[in-house]
Specification:
Length: about 70
């Protein structure tokens, strides 16, 4: 479908802007998919998610409530 520009938003939350994805939902909710890009790339071929030394970076779906 076609849409139109509505507004710019600034979002401050945990995450990695290079690999996570934010999805805005009605009711002031935001879903963050942690390691979205890694999972997407992995879905195109064998291998699994790249290993990482960082703590707390397993793929996850996290729901936030927007505070204005």
């Amino acid at each position: 479908g076609q849409g139109h520009f509505k507004q710019w938003l600034e979002v401050e939350c945990e995450g990695d802007p290079m690999s996570d994805r934010l999805i805005f939902l009605p009711g002031d909710k935001v879903i963050r998919i942690r390691r979205f890009v890694d999972a997407l790339i992995t879905s195109f071929g064998p291998g699994g998610l790249p290993a990482t030394e960082e703590e707390n970076v397993t793929p996850a779906v996290i729901c936030y409530r927007i505070v204005k």
